[in-house]
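Intended use. Records like the one below are meant for learning the mapping from a protein sequence to its folded structure. Do not use them to infer anything beyond what is encoded.
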Amino acid sequence: MELLRYLKKNKSTHAIFLLISFIQSILTMDKKLKSLTDLSKIKFENLAPDPVESKPLASDFQKQFLSAHFSNKGRAGKVVTLIKGFQGSNEALKSLAKTIKKEIKVGGTVKNGEILIQGSYRDQIMEILKAMGHDVKRVGG
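Structure written out for the chain above:
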């Protein structure tokens, strides 16, 4: 009973469905379960995986004309990729930076209206931004 209350409280419909299927399978069995191997022989029918939610890369999309820079000045020799030229709100800029960081799996920040991505990822960032529909210009080396 505690398990049912927990499942209903968390509103996990897939888990509830699995539990109901499990109980139905046990009730239709001719003999008792004696071990875990007996449990593994139970056949579940009509099971479907959890639905996967897909999120768009950018929710508030406005086509931008951006420039991708490569810099190590003022950063103790550390290389960063700068994205300049974004026109829009600070929240939209942070959202774009978050998307880029998640796609490349690196750190970064937003400073002075620019996106700073740690490391030399200019080509990958340009591909991501172009896939999102932005115009991106490569600046420098």
